[in-house]
Design a protein that fits this description.
By secondary structure, this protein is of the alpha/beta class. The chain has one domain: Rossmann fold, CATH 3.40.50. The protein is built from 3 helices and 4 strands. The radius of gyration is 13 Å and the shape is globular. The protein starts with 9 loop residues before the first strand and ends with a strand.
Length: 86
């Protein structure tokens, strides 16, 4: 056994189909979101075991930068890490 333990939980990748499909091959859950409403719905409906949310640039841009602490999105109080792809 290696010195690292696997992290419990799941990874969800949200964004445009052509940018997110490949992440499913690595075991991530993929949610195709083609517009702001789709992105918000994807974040609102995340499975409880989600620990990491990966957003494409377009998905991140679709979120209102003024989101409050209870809204889904980067900077929210969701118990999840949120990253944006370069």
């Amino acid at each position: 056994m290696s010195g690292t333990e696997p992290v419990p939980g799941s990874v969800v990748v949200v964004g445009e189909r052509e940018r997110v499909e490949g992440y499913g091959l690595a075991g991530a859950s993929v949610v195709v979101a083609d517009g702001p409403d789709d992105v918000r719905a994807a974040l609102r409906d995340l499975p409880s075991e989600t620990v990491l949310v990966v957003l494409t640039r377009a998905a991140a841009a679709a979120l209102d930068p003024a989101l409050g602490p209870d809204d889904p999105g980067p900077g929210s109080t969701m118990d999840r890490q949120v990253v944006v792809l370069p």
